[in-house]
Design a protein that fits this description.
It is a single chain. This protein has 14 helices and ten strands. With 325 residues, it is of the alpha/beta class. The strands form two sheets. Strands 1-2-10-7-8-9 form a six-stranded mixed sheet, sandwiched between helices. Helix 1 packs across helix 8, helix 8 crosses helix 9 and helix 12 crosses helix 13. The longest helix has 20 residues. The chain starts with 7 loop residues before the first helix and ends with a helix.
Length: 325
């Protein structure tokens, strides 16, 4: 599949479709954060999205693009948590049924959020079951699968975060040097790169992945999609998909992005830094971009850097662990 499947016109259409439902989240900065990192840093706070994570954007665009008959039947999604929350919220806004397939290892806060938005929760054991197999009976009943990332409407929806960033920067008269984006299957990163390169063609685009589970980085280096050997054991649980999407990989490869790895400790330190300097609560996966800057995986001293804080649905015990550093 190729990049022509998602264009800037698709992103603008998605923006119109989800307007009034998703929040235009703030682009934050703080002198203390700039001093610590030696750079002018802007943090896109998708932690303040209605669902606490960027995933609502893509889910809304996908769900609201369905036919009336498909909406009548409902939707199903599988997720480690955040995508499920987005689909549950989108389904509620569209007035349709949602079934969310979650692993038994999903964070309790994410399970509770899916349920709060009115979704039916189905759990599976990731050690012995495939989530696709658990979702299949619901698809057989006529429910539409809302994929987590490898879908044109999903990518276009996530790209609206990048569109907002560009407008927010231009309103301040700022041209960024680099953007760092947490990456799993690539829906957010592909969308943001697509949108931001439209406005800033020379922008350095960097992906942040969990250390040892850098499937997108290895894919970009190899010239074809690579799979992680096993499910990751990491606090960055929203970034543990097994293989990049075809559409998302194609977009990122064509735009010549690069990738870095961050550890659990890097993510925890970034969470603490975000709280101290911005009073922002970020989950480990959502802090991957800031972690790449704070751990010097991405050299930004003297530059203007944008970071996606992609989600804030963190268990209190994990957040307390970060603050104790």
């Amino acid at each position: 599949m190729s990049e022509v499947m998602v264009t800037i016109d698709d992103v603008l259409r998605a923006e119109r479709r989800i307007a009034g439902h998703a929040v235009c989240t703030p682009l934050l900065s703080a002198p203390m954060l700039d001093q610590v990192l030696g750079a002018e840093v802007f943090v896109k706070a998708e932690t303040l999205q209605l669902t606490g994570v960027f995933k609502l954007r893509g889910a809304l665009n996908k769900v609201m693009s369905l036919s009336p008959e498909a909406l009548r039947r409902g939707v199903v999604a599988y997720s480690s948590g955040n995508h499920g929350i987005g689909v549950a919220a989108a389904a509620k806004m569209a007035g349709t049924r949602a079934v969310i397939v979650l692993p038994t290892t999903a964070a309790a806060t994410k399970v509770e959020s899916c349920r709060w938005w009115g979704a039916e929760i189905v759990t599976y054991d990731p050690a012995h079951q495939r989530r696709e197999d658990v979702a299949e009976p619901y698809m057989d009943q006529g429910l539409t699968l809302v994929p987590p990332f490898d879908d044109p409407e999903i990518v276009a929806g996530q790209a609206t975060a990048g569109l907002e960033i560009c407008r927010q920067l231009l309103a301040r008269g700022v041209r960024p040097d680099v953007v760092v984006i947490p990456c799993s299957g690539g829906g957010l990163s592909a969308g943001v790169v697509l949108a931001m390169r439209h406005f800033f063609p020379d922008l350095d685009c960097v992906l942040a992945e969990p250390a040892g589970y850098n499937k997108m980085g290895r894919s970009l280096a190899a010239g074809c999609r690579q799979m992680n050997a096993e499910e990751a054991r990491t606090l960055l649980d929203a970034l543990i998909g097994r293989i990049p999407g075809e559409i998302t990989y194609s977009i990122l490869a064509r735009h010549g992005v690069r990738a870095v790895e961050v550890s659990d400790d890097d993510a925890l330190a970034a969470m603490a830094l975000a709280f101290r300097t911005l009073r922002l609560v970020i989950e480990p996966s959502g802090a991957a971009g800031l972690a790449a800057l704070n751990s010097a995986q991405v050299a930004v001293r003297g530059k203007r850097a944008v970071v996606l804080a992609s989600g804030g649905n963190v268990d209190p015990s994990v957040f307390a662990r970060a603050l104790a550093l």
